[in-house]
Amino acid sequence: MTDPVIVGVDGSASSLEAVDAAAREARLREAPLRIVHAFGHAPGHTPGHRPAGGPPWSPAARGLEPMVEGALAVAEERAHAAAPGVAVTRSVVAGEALEVMEIESRSASLAVVGSRGLSGFSGLLLGSTAVHLAAHGRCPLMVVRGRPDPAGAVLLAVDGSEAGGAAVEFAFAEAALRGAPLVALHVWNTWSERAYEGPGDPINAMVVDIERLREAEQRLLDETVAACGKNFPQVRVERRLERSRIRPALIEASRDAQLLVVGARGHGGFTGLLLGSVSQALLHHAHCPVAVVRGQA
Description:
Blueprint: E1 5-8, H1 13-29, E2 33-38, H2 65-82, E3 88-93, H3 97-104, E4 110-114, H4 127-136, E5 141-144, E6 153-157, H5 165-178, E7 182-188, H6 210-229, E8 237-243, H7 246-253, E9 257-263, H8 277-285, E10 290-293
Parallel strand pairs: 1-2, 1-4, 2-3, 4-5, 6-7, 6-9, 7-8, 9-10
Antiparallel strand pairs: 5-10
């Protein structure tokens, strides 16, 4: 059985938009959809731990059941409307939102959240939750943001990193599922890590042979696409090489995309950082949903 698509809800408009997107993703994958609401800590609950085989925590003892069940019922109704025929389950789970969604992601094919929540105290779908899941989740994360009903190609941010291979494969698979073309965009500039060799301050780095660097970046793009493209011959691919500032270029390109796929940490990322600055910028500013894909830990 295909692992479920999971979506976090908190009753906000952003979370309901995430439910719509998650239901459509579940239909594409022929997978069930699991709607999750995290609420507080159950008595005796240890953060980060959920008893094996234990039932989801019910807020009935605290008199919150009507509110929570009402929000879940609305979310389930939205899911059925967005993707009729998809099997939907829902649950309330004890714990902080960050912990709950991270645990749920261990048995999911995709996690979906909105870009905003209800408040800094009770909202599940805060920016911090999205950033945390992108860095620590055990499955790809889709953050629903940007213009409504985005159309266009699947946009892949090619960074040339070893860890980015998972993002490349995910982008090809998404394009195949959606019947959409794939735009593989590699943005480069003279301050990229490949522009200089050896230790030293990048600020003092100088690139003399710009054309040689451009050719190297083109080879990187071509090799990245070729390595995965042979497994998805049905996907039409446009290779796009652009010399520019990385974050603004990707954000601008997202205006014409239905989904932007990026790795959790780019080529120049420090080993200890699980989410790169480019990925974080896209989560906050992209004009379409963003999928962040981590490589193997």
